[in-house]
Amino acid sequence: MRASSSPALLLLRRLFRRRLVAAAAVVLAATVVAALFAPLIAPYSPTRMDIVHRLAPPGMAHLLGTDDFGRDVLSRVLFGARQSLAVGALVVCLATLLGTVLGLCAGYFRRMDTALMRFNDALMAFPDILLAIALMAALGASLINVVLALGIVYTPRVARIVRGAVLVLRELPFIEAAEALGAGRMRIMLVHLLPNLVSALVVQGTFVFGYAILTEAALSFLGAGVPPTIPTWGNMIAQAQQYMGQADWLMLFPGGAIVLVVLSLQMLGDGLRDALDPKLQRLL
Amino acid sequence: MIRYLLRRVGGLLAVMLMVAVIVFVIVRVVPGDPAAVMLGTAATPADIARLRTELGLDRPLAVQFLIYLKQIASLDLGRSLFLNEPVAWALWQRAELTGLLTLLAAGLSVAIGVPVGVVSAVRRGSWLDQAATAVSMFAASVPSFWVGLTLIEIFAVHNPWFPVSGWGGPGAGLAEHLRHLVLPACALGLPNSALIIRFTRTSMLDVLQEDYVRTARAKGVRPAGVVMRHAFRNAMIPVLTVVGLTVATLIGGAIVTETVFGLPGVGNLIVSAVLRRDYPVIQGTLLVISGLYVLINLLVDLLYALADPRVRF
């Protein structure tokens, strides 16, 4: 078969041989579809209030019940998926970009290594959530600032892995060959080193995606994240806290959504790590 | 060893200098004038100008940074804008609660994580191993505050065995404090034990494949003796590092847990400082917690050398 020789297909086949990984990919794909088509799927508007039917338990009219303003929980969870996924994806992009630049420079330019890695260590000396709320305090509460803050928080993890990989790659003959042929530093970094980092970045990006969703939820819960008017999963749980014991579904469904998505991301990350490159396991 | 120690302490100071730079910069990236932001909308221009001078904001940035470093060196973390007391004192008053909570959670996660991890590795592929792997993966995906809220719901609201929040009155003794910390310590420690399970299991599996374990088996040491005397002690060395690292995670988690349980600790201090934009408190807390983290990691690395005679510097 010709198809089996394509590396992408081979990878997918190896990846989905494990049933759990395949299930995780299906869950994530379904979440992305639900987020994209939320306005079409959601039975109600996420902001439509219906005070008469406030705090209604899950039932036929409202599959997942209603909240304290009579808003439909299912619709809010669906629209919340948009915020959580958007935050996760943007944080991954930002952290990968910054971390790759930092890690490439530290790994390739020996002179910058110590200073850059001390900076990296310093950033990693703050617990994630602490650095995130401090940055939010400085930047102010908004969706974009959450992305900026979390992007900065997760940059050092990416940088450390990129640097580790570059330190190994730098000593390999093909880099020496490229240098001997007169390739410039930029060309070596972008054309020769970067493509070899892709699999490490993909794996790390999957994990960072999950962390970002969890930390975003915690930030919203602490009141230092996305403004409370936007229905993110974290905001929904924070608002549900006062109805604990009388309206448990308010907390259960957004929390369950977070667990499902983050768990799937972790499984996919594990699967990708095993499928992409056995050598990677030592680095990550 | 002495040279290694000196080099590590030097590295620690360099990292702490970077930490100070980062903390300093974070407060300076506030859009607009920090003095105006701190005083709110009702402030007069004269008030703002006075605070600017008080905070030294009218001096050049480099001078401000040097003054800041000098203050840190003399252990002066500034005054809280809201509490009207020194930041160091505010932190010290709340350190007992957060320290106790972190220690309890760390103890709990080790007490669960190490035995389960060892058994998982020894009985690899058994139902217990599979269950432990599944549970630890699940635990790593649950938002920490959700665990806390669920525990409150089950063990404080439906079954009123433990207090819902707070940490007892000012006159409460240690026993009363500990009773208030049971649920918070579980909320913080249980998810963390998942991490310890994973690392203990991996580390045990590595060690069980070593030649000296095979030799011990071959010369007829009882299976339990092989696991405990030969494998366990060596497998614990990398786990020690992970426990050190998780202490930092736990301090971060304590911020969220204290908010869930309404505990007046360091986490509570910084969350209210963030909501009130009390920048000296934010700066001071960041500096102290990251300093602790760096210090704990240095101690763990030194313990490493004591625990493992093979490690030479």
Name a few traits of the molecule.
heterodimer; A: mainly alpha; MetI-like fold; 12 helices; disordered C terminus; B: about 325 residues; about 80% helix; globular
Would you kindly provide a written description of the structure presented here, covering whatever features stand out?
- The complex is a heterodimer of chains A (284) and B (313).
- Chain A is mainly α and 284 residues long.
- Chain A has a single domain, classed as Orthogonal Bundle (MetI-like fold).
- Chain A has 12 helices and no strands.
- Chain A has helices at residues 7-16, 19-36, 38-41, 73-108, 110-124, 128-139, 143-170, 173-180, 185-222, 233-240, 249-276, 280-283.
- Chain B is globular.
- The mean pLDDT of chain B is 83.
- By secondary structure, chain B is mainly α.
- Chain B has 2 domains: 2-73, no CATH class; 92-307, MetI-like (MetI-like fold, Orthogonal Bundle).
- Chains A and B meet through helix 5, helix 6, helix 9 and helix 11 of A and helix 1, helix 7, helix 10, helix 11 and helix 12 of B.
Q: What's the layout of helices and strands?
A:
The complex is a heterodimer of chains A (284) and B (313).
Chain A: H1 7-16, H2 19-36, H3 38-41, H4 73-108, H5 110-124, H6 128-139, H7 143-170, H8 173-180, H9 185-222, H10 233-240, H11 249-276, H12 280-283
Helix pairs in contact in A: 1-11, 2-4, 2-11, 4-5, 4-7, 4-9, 4-11, 5-7, 6-7, 7-9, 8-9, 9-10, 9-11, 10-11
Chain B: H1 2-28, H2 34-39, H3 45-55, H4 61-73, H5 87-122, H6 127-139, H7 144-158, H8 174-208, H9 211-218, H10 223-261, H11 266-276, H12 279-307
